Amino acid sequence: MSSVELMQEGKRQMQICNACRYCEGYCAVWHAIEYRREFTDKDMTYLANLCHDCRECVFACPFTTPHEFGVNPPKLFAELRQDSYKKYAIASPLGKLNFWATTVIALVVFFIIALVLNGSTNVFSKHLGTGGFYAVLSEGLLTILFSIFGLWMAFGWVFGAFRYWRDLKSEQTQPVMARDVVKAIKDAFALRYLGKETPDSEVPMQRRVLHHFVFYGFLLDFASTTLGAFYSHVLHIQAPYPVMSPVVILGILGGIGILIGTSGFIYVKTRDDRSATDEGAVKSGRAFSISLLLVAATGFLLLALRDTAAMGTILVIHLSTVASLFLTAPYTKFTHFVYRLMALVRYAQEERTHGVSAAPKPVAHSSHQFRKIVDMDSANQ
Ligand code: SF4
Ligand code: SF4
């Protein structure tokens, strides 16, 4: 389906949902559609990024396929989200490369640099004690390279956020206030709309727990890297650090969180109901999980083998996965938090403006009860 056809299809489905409104207790999307009579392209991109993909609405829906209305909001929103990531991302050749291609390129480049600057004896020998890593790739070079990669990632996200927000803002009549931003950040950190409104349902709760593992695992690893930079550049204590140092402890805890979360996601997504999602979104989510898993797994391998002659090789592999994650971040599933956060800010502003202060309430029936009722009705006809 082309982007234009997808938008038309989305607007058709939203008109049906707005007339039905059965799902209004499930998540913020259903309040947001009630604030509208007509849907623009920008509205559709907003709703798509407000959806947390819990799938509860389609499991409850009597108007999904084989019904002639063919309503399927999670699939529709998944396709629209993929389109929005492409539409707002910064244009660069990196957008055409995936994680694997970038990792291989980074691997070759890092190996060449290490061999040319430090020689094979240094790269393939054992280095004990502080400063061991820098015998393979110098501290100054790593600082410059990873600062550039980090700045690129942040710039890509800010660029996408700015363009997306410009579109969201163009249809707003009221200004955004600081409290809208605070509420959106709180909702994003708590994953408010993923599973909390439907606590009887297993699938969203599973995804919620796994998402927390990945997200907080990533934050712990980020804290570990930041603390490592402080040790290195302010305290002048070079890596590798003792296992019981705060840098390594934070890194281990974060790595465990990422390993549990990403492998859990890869497993549960093999059992997903594919009719409720988009194949492109599944592939993109799986590729992102694998990339994070590889970063964490190679980090643990480096920790385990850092006192052996394999350290140089593992270090180069680990750094290549991290570099690739950073360089492709504006184009992968990694970018989803930027658009989700923007959509949540817009929703907080709309909720305040329209005077809906209460959180969406769970509907009387769980989706599974509702599905049973619909099935029984059909059987009795
Ligand atoms: S039950 Fe179906 S048509 Fe009704 S609001 Fe939910 S998804 Fe839309
Ligand atoms: S899939 Fe879940 S989060 Fe998305 S619109 Fe449906 S109920 Fe809301």
TrEMBL record:
SUPFAM superfamilies: 4Fe-4S ferredoxins (SSF54862), Respiratory nitrate reductase 1 gamma chain (SSF103501). Keywords: Iron, Iron-sulfur, Membrane, Metal-binding, Transmembrane, Transmembrane helix. The keyword Oxidoreductase does not apply. InterPro entries: 4Fe4S_Fe_S_CS (IPR017900), Citrate_utilization_prot_B (IPR012830), NarG-like_sf (IPR036197). The keyword Protease does not apply. PROSITE patterns: 4FE4S_FER_1. The chain crosses the membrane at residues 97-120, 140-162, 213-231, 243-267, 287-305, 311-332. It comes from the Bacteria. This is Tricarballylate utilization 4Fe-4S protein TcuB.
